[in-house]
Amino acid sequence: MPAPLYDSLRALAETRPLRLDMPGHHGTPLPGGLAWPSAIDFTENGATGDLFGDGPDAIRAAEGLWAARFGFDACLFLTGGSTQGIHAGLALLAGAGGAVALDRGSHRSQFNALALLDLEPVFLPRPWMGPEGVAGPMEPETVEKTLAERPEIKTVSITSPTYYGVLSDIPAIAAVCRAHGAKLLVDGAHGAHLPFLGYAGYQAADAVVMSAHKTLPAPGQSALLFANGFPLSQLQRWGSVYGSSSPSYVLMAALDGARDYMEGEGAARYRETARLVGGLRERWPALGERDGLRLDPARLTLTSPDGFALARALRERGVYPEMADAGHVVCILTCADGAAEFDRLERALEEAGPAGPCAPVPAPPEPPRAVLSPRQALFAPRERVELRESEGRVAACQIAPYPPGVPVIAPGERIEKKHLAYLREIGYNKEYCDVILKGE
Protein backbone atom coordinates (compact mmCIF):
# COMPACT_ATOMS: atom_id res chain seq x y z
CA MET A 1 0.00 0.00 0.00
CA PRO A 2 1.22 3.58 -0.61
CA ALA A 3 2.75 5.67 2.15
CA PRO A 4 3.70 8.71 0.03
CA LEU A 5 5.11 10.99 2.72
CA TYR A 6 7.14 8.34 4.50
CA ASP A 7 8.42 6.97 1.20
CA SER A 8 9.42 10.41 -0.08
CA LEU A 9 11.32 11.25 3.11
CA ARG A 10 13.12 7.90 3.07
CA ALA A 11 14.09 8.48 -0.56
CA LEU A 12 15.40 11.96 0.24
CA ALA A 13 17.37 10.64 3.21
CA GLU A 14 18.97 7.97 1.04
CA THR A 15 20.51 10.71 -1.14
CA ARG A 16 22.48 11.72 1.98
CA PRO A 17 21.98 15.48 1.59
CA LEU A 18 24.19 17.94 3.46
CA ARG A 19 21.62 19.13 6.00
CA LEU A 20 22.37 22.67 7.15
CA ASP A 21 18.91 23.37 8.54
CA MET A 22 16.67 22.14 11.33
CA PRO A 23 16.63 19.79 13.22
CA GLY A 24 20.10 20.12 14.68
CA HIS A 25 20.93 16.41 14.52
CA HIS A 26 21.11 16.73 10.70
CA GLY A 27 20.02 13.14 10.28
CA THR A 28 22.64 11.55 12.54
CA PRO A 29 21.82 9.28 15.51
CA LEU A 30 21.13 11.08 18.75
CA PRO A 31 23.66 10.97 21.62
CA GLY A 32 23.27 8.23 24.19
CA GLY A 33 21.72 5.74 21.80
CA LEU A 34 18.22 7.22 22.04
CA ALA A 35 16.15 5.66 19.27
CA TRP A 36 14.85 8.33 16.90
CA PRO A 37 14.48 8.17 13.11
CA SER A 38 16.81 11.08 12.54
CA ALA A 39 17.24 10.28 8.87
CA ILE A 40 13.69 11.37 8.02
CA ASP A 41 13.45 14.22 10.56
CA PHE A 42 13.48 17.07 8.03
CA THR A 43 12.14 20.60 7.85
CA GLU A 44 10.54 22.37 4.85
CA ASN A 45 13.32 22.47 2.28
CA GLY A 46 11.57 22.50 -1.08
CA ALA A 47 11.67 18.72 -1.40
CA THR A 48 9.76 17.70 1.72
CA GLY A 49 6.51 19.60 1.26
CA ASP A 50 4.83 22.09 3.59
CA LEU A 51 2.07 21.12 6.04
CA PHE A 52 0.47 24.54 5.77
CA GLY A 53 1.36 25.22 2.13
CA ASP A 54 -0.78 24.87 -0.98
CA GLY A 55 0.97 21.79 -2.47
CA PRO A 56 0.53 19.47 -4.21
CA ASP A 57 3.16 17.41 -2.40
CA ALA A 58 3.58 14.17 -0.48
CA ILE A 59 1.91 15.63 2.62
CA ARG A 60 -1.21 16.50 0.60
CA ALA A 61 -1.22 12.98 -0.84
CA ALA A 62 -0.86 11.37 2.58
CA GLU A 63 -3.61 13.53 4.10
CA GLY A 64 -5.82 12.75 1.12
CA LEU A 65 -5.50 9.02 1.72
CA TRP A 66 -6.69 9.48 5.32
CA ALA A 67 -9.60 11.66 4.21
CA ALA A 68 -10.69 9.15 1.59
CA ARG A 69 -10.37 6.20 3.98
CA PHE A 70 -12.51 7.86 6.65
CA GLY A 71 -15.02 9.45 4.24
CA PHE A 72 -14.22 13.14 4.68
CA ASP A 73 -13.58 15.98 2.27
CA ALA A 74 -10.34 17.04 3.95
CA CYS A 75 -7.80 15.88 6.53
CA LEU A 76 -5.07 17.90 8.24
CA PHE A 77 -2.15 16.26 10.00
CA LEU A 78 -1.67 17.53 13.56
CA THR A 79 1.64 17.40 15.41
CA GLY A 80 0.27 19.10 18.52
CA GLY A 81 -2.13 16.33 19.49
CA SER A 82 -5.90 16.56 19.59
CA THR A 83 -5.54 19.75 21.62
CA GLN A 84 -4.37 21.53 18.47
CA GLY A 85 -7.27 19.98 16.58
CA ILE A 86 -9.88 20.99 19.14
CA HIS A 87 -8.69 24.59 19.08
CA ALA A 88 -8.57 24.65 15.28
CA GLY A 89 -11.91 22.85 14.97
CA LEU A 90 -13.78 25.26 17.22
CA ALA A 91 -12.21 28.22 15.42
CA LEU A 92 -13.24 26.67 12.10
CA LEU A 93 -16.86 26.02 13.07
CA ALA A 94 -17.66 28.66 15.69
CA GLY A 95 -15.26 31.53 15.10
CA ALA A 96 -14.88 34.13 17.85
CA GLY A 97 -17.64 35.28 20.15
CA GLY A 98 -21.09 33.79 20.34
CA ALA A 99 -22.23 30.64 22.09
CA VAL A 100 -21.46 26.93 21.72
CA ALA A 101 -23.51 23.97 22.94
CA LEU A 102 -20.79 22.02 24.70
CA ASP A 103 -20.59 18.56 26.19
CA ARG A 104 -20.03 19.14 29.91
CA GLY A 105 -17.67 16.18 29.79
CA SER A 106 -15.36 17.85 27.28
CA HIS A 107 -11.60 17.64 27.56
CA ARG A 108 -9.86 20.61 29.14
CA SER A 109 -8.59 21.70 25.71
CA GLN A 110 -12.15 22.69 24.80
CA PHE A 111 -12.43 24.91 27.86
CA ASN A 112 -9.16 26.61 26.95
CA ALA A 113 -10.43 27.07 23.38
CA LEU A 114 -13.59 28.71 24.72
CA ALA A 115 -11.44 31.24 26.52
CA LEU A 116 -9.17 31.94 23.57
CA LEU A 117 -12.14 32.39 21.21
CA ASP A 118 -14.31 34.19 23.80
CA LEU A 119 -17.14 31.69 23.38
CA GLU A 120 -19.99 31.20 25.83
CA PRO A 121 -20.51 27.55 26.79
CA VAL A 122 -24.07 26.26 27.04
CA PHE A 123 -23.50 22.90 28.68
CA LEU A 124 -25.13 19.71 27.44
CA PRO A 125 -25.71 17.24 30.29
CA ARG A 126 -25.40 13.49 29.87
CA PRO A 127 -27.60 10.94 31.65
CA TRP A 128 -25.99 9.27 34.65
CA MET A 129 -25.88 5.48 34.43
CA GLY A 130 -25.99 4.45 38.07
CA PRO A 131 -25.21 0.71 37.78
CA GLU A 132 -22.19 1.44 35.58
CA GLY A 133 -21.09 4.53 37.50
CA VAL A 134 -20.40 6.54 34.34
CA ALA A 135 -22.06 9.24 32.27
CA GLY A 136 -24.06 7.76 29.40
CA PRO A 137 -24.20 8.78 25.75
CA MET A 138 -25.13 12.27 24.65
CA GLU A 139 -28.82 12.12 23.79
CA PRO A 140 -30.09 13.72 20.56
CA GLU A 141 -33.11 14.98 22.51
CA THR A 142 -30.81 16.99 24.78
CA VAL A 143 -29.19 18.66 21.79
CA GLU A 144 -32.61 19.28 20.22
CA LYS A 145 -33.93 20.95 23.38
CA THR A 146 -30.88 23.20 23.73
CA LEU A 147 -30.88 24.33 20.10
CA ALA A 148 -34.64 24.99 20.23
CA GLU A 149 -34.22 27.13 23.35
CA ARG A 150 -31.11 28.91 22.06
CA PRO A 151 -31.56 29.31 18.28
CA GLU A 152 -28.53 31.60 18.07
CA ILE A 153 -26.25 28.61 18.82
CA LYS A 154 -24.77 27.37 15.56
CA THR A 155 -22.04 25.05 16.84
CA VAL A 156 -22.36 21.87 18.92
CA SER A 157 -19.39 19.98 20.35
CA ILE A 158 -19.58 16.48 21.83
CA THR A 159 -17.14 13.74 22.83
CA SER A 160 -17.45 10.22 21.42
CA PRO A 161 -16.18 7.83 22.62
CA THR A 162 -15.63 8.91 26.19
CA TYR A 163 -12.61 7.80 28.21
CA TYR A 164 -14.71 4.86 29.40
CA GLY A 165 -15.59 3.86 25.83
CA VAL A 166 -19.17 5.16 25.72
CA LEU A 167 -20.32 5.95 22.17
CA SER A 168 -22.98 8.51 21.23
CA ASP A 169 -25.25 8.35 18.17
CA ILE A 170 -23.34 10.84 16.03
CA PRO A 171 -25.56 10.55 12.91
CA ALA A 172 -28.71 11.25 14.97
CA ILE A 173 -27.08 14.24 16.70
CA ALA A 174 -25.76 15.52 13.36
CA ALA A 175 -29.29 15.35 11.92
CA VAL A 176 -30.58 17.46 14.81
CA CYS A 177 -27.81 19.98 14.22
CA ARG A 178 -28.56 20.23 10.51
CA ALA A 179 -32.25 20.78 11.22
CA HIS A 180 -31.29 23.82 13.30
CA GLY A 181 -28.61 25.11 10.93
CA ALA A 182 -25.81 24.19 13.36
CA LYS A 183 -22.44 22.52 12.78
CA LEU A 184 -21.24 19.49 14.75
CA LEU A 185 -17.70 19.05 16.07
CA VAL A 186 -16.84 15.64 17.54
CA ASP A 187 -13.91 15.09 19.87
CA GLY A 188 -13.07 11.55 18.77
CA ALA A 189 -9.63 11.59 20.35
CA HIS A 190 -10.07 8.01 21.58
CA GLY A 191 -11.73 6.75 18.40
CA ALA A 192 -9.13 6.79 15.62
CA HIS A 193 -9.27 2.99 15.39
CA LEU A 194 -13.05 2.75 15.07
CA PRO A 195 -13.33 3.34 11.29
CA PHE A 196 -10.88 0.47 10.77
CA LEU A 197 -13.36 -1.72 12.70
CA GLY A 198 -16.18 -0.72 10.36
CA TYR A 199 -17.63 2.20 12.34
CA ALA A 200 -18.95 4.90 9.97
CA GLY A 201 -20.69 7.28 12.37
CA TYR A 202 -18.03 9.99 12.28
CA GLN A 203 -18.76 10.80 8.65
CA ALA A 204 -22.02 12.52 9.65
CA ALA A 205 -20.17 15.26 11.58
CA ASP A 206 -18.87 18.51 10.12
CA ALA A 207 -15.49 18.15 11.83
CA VAL A 208 -13.84 15.40 13.87
CA VAL A 209 -10.60 15.39 15.84
CA MET A 210 -8.78 12.10 16.45
CA SER A 211 -5.61 11.21 18.33
CA ALA A 212 -3.79 8.59 16.31
CA HIS A 213 -1.33 8.19 19.17
CA LYS A 214 -4.03 7.07 21.63
CA THR A 215 -5.30 3.95 19.89
CA LEU A 216 -3.20 3.44 16.74
CA PRO A 217 0.49 2.54 16.38
CA ALA A 218 1.64 6.16 16.17
CA PRO A 219 3.92 8.33 18.35
CA GLY A 220 2.77 10.86 20.94
CA GLN A 221 1.23 14.12 19.67
CA SER A 222 0.31 12.65 16.28
CA ALA A 223 -3.34 13.45 15.55
CA LEU A 224 -5.79 14.28 12.77
CA LEU A 225 -8.44 16.90 11.98
CA PHE A 226 -11.13 15.83 9.51
CA ALA A 227 -13.86 18.00 7.98
CA ASN A 228 -16.73 17.86 5.54
CA GLY A 229 -17.85 20.95 3.65
CA PHE A 230 -14.58 22.84 4.21
CA PRO A 231 -11.55 23.04 1.92
CA LEU A 232 -8.19 21.90 3.26
CA SER A 233 -6.99 25.51 3.14
CA GLN A 234 -9.42 26.41 5.94
CA LEU A 235 -8.14 23.56 8.12
CA GLN A 236 -4.58 24.69 7.39
CA ARG A 237 -5.45 28.26 8.30
CA TRP A 238 -6.56 27.38 11.80
CA GLY A 239 -4.16 24.52 12.27
CA SER A 240 -1.29 26.93 11.65
CA VAL A 241 -2.64 29.35 14.27
CA TYR A 242 -2.52 26.73 17.00
CA GLY A 243 0.37 24.60 15.74
CA SER A 244 4.09 24.97 15.36
CA SER A 245 5.50 26.53 12.20
CA SER A 246 8.10 23.73 12.40
CA PRO A 247 5.91 20.61 12.48
CA SER A 248 7.65 17.29 12.98
CA TYR A 249 8.09 15.36 9.76
CA VAL A 250 8.69 12.24 11.80
CA LEU A 251 5.24 12.54 13.35
CA MET A 252 3.61 13.24 9.99
CA ALA A 253 5.41 10.33 8.37
CA ALA A 254 4.30 8.15 11.28
CA LEU A 255 0.69 9.13 10.60
CA ASP A 256 1.17 8.13 6.99
CA GLY A 257 2.74 4.82 7.97
CA ALA A 258 0.08 4.09 10.59
CA ARG A 259 -2.72 4.39 8.03
CA ASP A 260 -0.85 2.20 5.58
CA TYR A 261 -0.41 -0.46 8.27
CA MET A 262 -4.05 -0.25 9.33
CA GLU A 263 -5.22 -0.77 5.75
CA GLY A 264 -3.94 -4.34 5.98
CA GLU A 265 -2.45 -6.21 8.89
CA GLY A 266 -3.37 -3.59 11.48
CA ALA A 267 -7.12 -3.80 10.85
CA ALA A 268 -7.04 -7.59 11.09
CA ARG A 269 -5.12 -7.40 14.34
CA TYR A 270 -7.57 -4.84 15.70
CA ARG A 271 -10.50 -7.09 14.90
CA GLU A 272 -8.79 -9.82 16.89
CA THR A 273 -8.19 -7.36 19.74
CA ALA A 274 -11.89 -6.48 19.80
CA ARG A 275 -12.73 -10.20 19.92
CA LEU A 276 -10.36 -10.77 22.83
CA VAL A 277 -11.74 -7.74 24.68
CA GLY A 278 -15.22 -9.20 24.26
CA GLY A 279 -13.99 -12.38 25.93
CA LEU A 280 -12.51 -10.48 28.87
CA ARG A 281 -15.78 -8.59 29.33
CA GLU A 282 -17.56 -11.94 29.69
CA ARG A 283 -15.06 -13.34 32.19
CA TRP A 284 -14.37 -10.27 34.30
CA PRO A 285 -16.57 -7.53 35.77
CA ALA A 286 -16.54 -4.80 33.15
CA LEU A 287 -18.74 -2.33 31.34
CA GLY A 288 -20.79 -4.10 28.71
CA GLU A 289 -23.31 -3.06 26.10
CA ARG A 290 -27.01 -2.96 26.88
CA ASP A 291 -30.05 -1.05 25.66
CA GLY A 292 -29.09 2.61 25.57
CA LEU A 293 -25.38 1.93 26.03
CA ARG A 294 -23.03 1.33 23.12
CA LEU A 295 -19.31 0.90 23.69
CA ASP A 296 -16.02 1.00 21.82
CA PRO A 297 -15.51 -2.72 21.14
CA ALA A 298 -11.80 -2.50 21.95
CA ARG A 299 -11.99 -0.52 25.21
CA LEU A 300 -11.86 -2.56 28.42
CA THR A 301 -13.33 -0.71 31.40
CA LEU A 302 -13.12 -3.03 34.38
CA THR A 303 -15.38 -2.44 37.35
CA SER A 304 -14.28 -2.86 40.94
CA PRO A 305 -15.38 -2.09 44.49
CA ASP A 306 -12.06 -0.20 44.71
CA GLY A 307 -10.70 0.84 41.35
CA PHE A 308 -7.67 2.56 42.86
CA ALA A 309 -6.67 -0.63 44.70
CA LEU A 310 -7.14 -2.75 41.59
CA ALA A 311 -4.99 -0.40 39.51
CA ARG A 312 -2.31 -0.40 42.20
CA ALA A 313 -2.32 -4.22 42.32
CA LEU A 314 -1.98 -4.41 38.55
CA ARG A 315 0.94 -1.97 38.54
CA GLU A 316 2.67 -4.07 41.20
CA ARG A 317 2.49 -6.94 38.69
CA GLY A 318 3.93 -4.85 35.88
CA VAL A 319 0.58 -4.08 34.21
CA TYR A 320 -0.06 -0.35 33.82
CA PRO A 321 -3.68 0.60 33.04
CA GLU A 322 -4.58 3.93 31.48
CA MET A 323 -6.53 5.31 34.43
CA ALA A 324 -8.53 4.42 37.50
CA ASP A 325 -11.25 5.95 39.60
CA ALA A 326 -13.18 4.73 42.63
CA GLY A 327 -15.11 2.11 40.69
CA HIS A 328 -13.25 1.52 37.40
CA VAL A 329 -9.94 0.66 35.79
CA VAL A 330 -9.61 1.58 32.11
CA CYS A 331 -7.29 -0.43 29.85
CA ILE A 332 -6.52 0.71 26.31
CA LEU A 333 -5.95 -2.43 24.25
CA THR A 334 -4.92 -1.98 20.62
CA CYS A 335 -3.66 -3.84 17.58
CA ALA A 336 -0.26 -3.92 19.31
CA ASP A 337 -1.69 -6.39 21.86
CA GLY A 338 -2.09 -10.06 21.01
CA ALA A 339 -2.80 -13.29 22.83
CA ALA A 340 0.36 -13.06 24.96
CA GLU A 341 -0.53 -9.58 26.25
CA PHE A 342 -4.10 -10.60 26.98
CA ASP A 343 -2.90 -13.69 28.85
CA ARG A 344 -0.55 -11.55 30.92
CA LEU A 345 -3.36 -9.13 31.77
CA GLU A 346 -5.66 -11.97 32.76
CA ARG A 347 -3.03 -13.60 34.98
CA ALA A 348 -2.49 -10.26 36.70
CA LEU A 349 -6.24 -9.89 37.24
CA GLU A 350 -6.40 -13.35 38.76
CA GLU A 351 -3.71 -12.35 41.27
CA ALA A 352 -4.86 -8.77 41.88
CA GLY A 353 -8.10 -9.59 43.62
CA PRO A 354 -10.47 -6.65 43.96
CA ALA A 355 -12.43 -6.99 40.73
CA GLY A 356 -16.20 -7.04 41.13
CA PRO A 357 -19.25 -4.83 40.89
CA CYS A 358 -18.61 -1.14 40.48
CA ALA A 359 -18.26 0.76 43.73
CA PRO A 360 -21.17 3.14 44.20
CA VAL A 361 -20.19 6.24 42.26
CA PRO A 362 -22.45 9.22 42.90
CA ALA A 363 -23.80 11.25 40.04
CA PRO A 364 -22.05 14.59 39.67
CA PRO A 365 -23.87 17.47 41.38
CA GLU A 366 -25.49 20.24 39.40
CA PRO A 367 -22.81 22.44 37.81
CA PRO A 368 -21.82 25.52 39.79
CA ARG A 369 -23.04 28.97 38.86
CA ALA A 370 -20.87 30.75 36.30
CA VAL A 371 -19.58 34.07 37.60
CA LEU A 372 -17.02 34.88 34.91
CA SER A 373 -16.74 33.90 31.26
CA PRO A 374 -14.06 31.34 30.36
CA ARG A 375 -11.98 34.14 28.85
CA GLN A 376 -12.27 36.35 31.92
CA ALA A 377 -11.30 33.42 34.13
CA LEU A 378 -8.27 32.55 32.03
CA PHE A 379 -6.77 36.03 32.08
CA ALA A 380 -7.80 37.22 35.56
CA PRO A 381 -5.17 37.44 38.33
CA ARG A 382 -5.19 34.27 40.40
CA GLU A 383 -3.78 32.68 43.49
CA ARG A 384 -3.35 29.12 44.75
CA VAL A 385 -5.28 28.06 47.83
CA GLU A 386 -6.01 24.82 49.61
CA LEU A 387 -8.97 23.09 48.01
CA ARG A 388 -10.68 22.61 51.37
CA GLU A 389 -10.50 26.36 51.93
CA SER A 390 -11.83 27.31 48.49
CA GLU A 391 -15.57 27.36 49.18
CA GLY A 392 -17.13 30.54 47.81
CA ARG A 393 -14.18 31.36 45.57
CA VAL A 394 -14.28 31.48 41.76
CA ALA A 395 -12.28 28.77 39.99
CA ALA A 396 -9.50 30.01 37.71
CA CYS A 397 -9.00 26.59 36.10
CA GLN A 398 -10.70 23.24 35.84
CA ILE A 399 -11.14 21.28 39.03
CA ALA A 400 -11.46 17.81 37.64
CA PRO A 401 -10.18 14.27 38.06
CA TYR A 402 -7.62 13.86 35.28
CA PRO A 403 -7.91 11.58 33.51
CA PRO A 404 -10.60 11.73 32.25
CA GLY A 405 -10.52 15.51 32.63
CA VAL A 406 -14.26 16.05 33.07
CA PRO A 407 -14.69 19.21 35.15
CA VAL A 408 -16.69 19.15 38.33
CA ILE A 409 -15.98 22.87 38.45
CA ALA A 410 -15.08 24.77 35.29
CA PRO A 411 -13.12 28.02 35.00
CA GLY A 412 -15.25 31.00 36.02
CA GLU A 413 -17.63 28.96 38.21
CA ARG A 414 -18.11 29.50 41.93
CA ILE A 415 -16.95 26.66 44.17
CA GLU A 416 -19.70 25.42 46.49
CA LYS A 417 -19.76 23.08 49.47
CA LYS A 418 -21.59 20.33 47.58
CA HIS A 419 -18.92 20.22 44.88
CA LEU A 420 -16.12 19.94 47.42
CA ALA A 421 -18.03 17.12 49.13
CA TYR A 422 -18.43 15.32 45.82
CA LEU A 423 -14.72 15.62 45.03
CA ARG A 424 -13.88 14.08 48.41
CA GLU A 425 -16.39 11.29 47.84
CA ILE A 426 -14.92 10.23 44.49
CA GLY A 427 -11.35 10.26 45.83
CA TYR A 428 -10.06 13.44 44.20
CA ASN A 429 -6.58 13.84 45.66
CA LYS A 430 -5.46 17.35 44.71
CA GLU A 431 -4.80 19.53 47.73
CA TYR A 432 -4.68 22.90 45.99
CA CYS A 433 -6.54 24.79 43.29
CA ASP A 434 -6.20 28.10 41.48
CA VAL A 435 -8.86 30.71 42.20
CA ILE A 436 -9.50 34.27 41.07
CA LEU A 437 -8.06 36.92 43.36
CA LYS A 438 -10.71 38.48 45.53
CA GLY A 439 -11.99 41.75 44.17
CA GLU A 440 -11.42 40.73 40.56
Task: Describe the overall structure.
The protein is of the alpha/beta class and 440 residues long. Helix content is 36%, strand content 15%. It is built from 13 helices and 16 strands. The protein has helices spanning 4-14, 58-70, 81-94, 108-117, 140-149, 170-179, 212-215, 232-242, 249-283, 307-316, 339-352, 374-379, 417-425, and strands spanning 74-78, 99-103, 120-124, 128-129, 134-135, 155-159, 166-167, 183-187, 207-211, 223-227, 294-295, 299-303, 323-324, 328-332, 382-386, 432-436. The strands form five sheets. Strands 1-10-9-8-6-2-3 form a seven-stranded mixed beta sheet, sandwiched between helices. Strands 12-14-13 form a three-stranded antiparallel beta sheet. Helix 3 (81-94) crosses helix 8 (232-242) and helix 5 (140-149) packs parallel to helix 6. The longest helix is centred in the middle third of the chain and has 35 residues, at 249-283. The chain is globular and about 65 Å long.
What's the gist of this structure?
With 440 residues, this protein is α/β, with parallel strands linked by helices.
Name a few traits of the molecule.
seven-stranded mixed beta sheet, three-stranded antiparallel beta sheet, 440 residues, alpha/beta, 16 strands, globular, 13 helices, single chain
Q: Report how far the terminal alpha carbons are from each other.
A: 59 Å
Counted beta strands:
16
Mean pLDDT: 93
- Taking Cα atoms only, what radius of gyration do you get, to the nearest Å? 22 Å
Task: Identify low-pLDDT runs.
Answer: none
Strand-and-helix sequence, N→C? Answer: HHEHEHEEEHEEHEEHEHHEEHEEHHEHE
Structural class: alpha/beta
Q: Please state how the strands of the largest beta sheet are arranged side by side.
A: 1-10-9-8-6-2-3
| Biggest sheet details | 7 strands, mixed
DSSP helical segment count: 13
Q: Bin the helical content.
A: 25-40%
Overall 3D form: globular
Sheet-strand content, in percent, reads: 5-15%
